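User
Class, as today's exercise, I want you to study this protein, comparing sequence with structure tokens, and judge whether sequence predicts the tokens.
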Amino acid sequence: MREALRQSEEALEQNHFLASLSLLQQIQPTLLSARDQATTEWIAAKIHAHRGHYYEAKALYQTILRRNESDLPRSRQTLLEEQYALAQQHHDQYVVITAGLELLFRYEPLFPSNIVFNLSLALADVSPQAARNILESIPAETRGPIKAALASDALIKRNVGATLCEAWQKISELELAIQPLCTNSPKDRQAELIIALPLTGRLKPAGEAILDGIVAAQLIAGHETQLKVVDTDTIEMTALATQLKANPLSRLIGPLEKEKLAQLASLVEPEQSVIGLNTLENSDSSSNIVQLALSPESEARDLAERVFATGARRIVIIRPQTDWGARTLLAVRSTWESLGGTEVATATYRGQDDYEAALRVALGVADSNARRRELGRVSGLSTHLQTRRRQDIDAIIMLASSPEEARSLKPLLAFHFADDLPTFALSVINELPSQIDHKDLDSLYALEIPTIPPFPESRANSASLARLNALGMDAYQLAKSTHVDTGKLRSLQRGHTGLLYLNDEKKLIRHMYLYRYDQETLRRK
């Protein structure tokens, strides 16, 4: 049995998971030493993790870590790091917090600042009561960061990152880790705020919706900052850059158009503060252009991470044959591949007439019908076999580009025997007015910003304009608080469009909420 255990471990190291599992099943753990038993548990945990069985892997790691340190198959730090990385993939905030604190306080992890930042994200995602419950379950020597966060009310504040920086700066164990994350908070200087939006052309509705959000945030904040609004349809970017240079204290929100933002980025000085409302392909980390956008690509990447966190490893992607469908497909594919998932098939449709044919092929229903007909031809008998879909699918990512597409596709999935598969979609499908029956979408998961669902009885704006209002409010708050010398953790905010923070390329990363359609209403998962 020890030889089978050795071979199983070797197969695991070579990523031959099925061979490792086959060898592991030949072993009777009760006949092994305590250390070898722990090794079998560790191998089983790694196999479960690879297959997306998070809770089984989590339980095994917890069992292993309760063993004597001399019996562990790897060092305790290595096992904690593996458990911590797995919890991050599956958004298990409890383990991210508890394992992260133990790594910070008991060991010398390679990237302590990353652990502190992920700890802050996890705390921002839990309620104060959940944080208190975690506090009671961890050793007294690691409670300092959570106690400080609760005492500062960081978990209920909008500027959660800045509050955590203030709360943690006196904790000696975190001193070096938070230093690169928390620079000195710059003073809020009263200065002119230039708003550059399209207000006359085809993007006028979008520009006006964003401007409404900026003005609303200005009124709520009660600041005396002067707002200067310019129309990007009538002003050249060179003239806009000149206006910004004329007042060194000025800040700019805009433009919304990608090509105009790229042109402006080449004209402004690094020390000038700009909140761009789009994303740039080749951004310069030395620039002070902060990129804030509600792009479908960034949302698609967020969705892929959420689907992977559910334990799904094999997916079918449904998407329209349009430029929008191609861009979101690429974003999902690149993220899914980087996580180690498998794309089983892609269903591509040009229009409503293609829905059924595309799904039949992707789900393997067409192959099932062909096999049934071939069996009947060979046997010479009439066959009454049930058509089946392929069984190697864990989830479906539906990149529908409109609510009408989603309402047509979701029932077809049930018709083709896929109603048991969890199906996920982007926020664009939530734009149905409240008067329309949403029952066709029941059980479907969708991303959305926190300020929209559930569907109200009436709404002043459509969902798309409501998101742009929220984007304007976030842009105003960021223009007031984000500076070139502000550390990464200080950028962490509870925005109107989700939890926001700046990455190293000065792009705002947004975590939206995942909701589920339940009895015609969106409810947070």
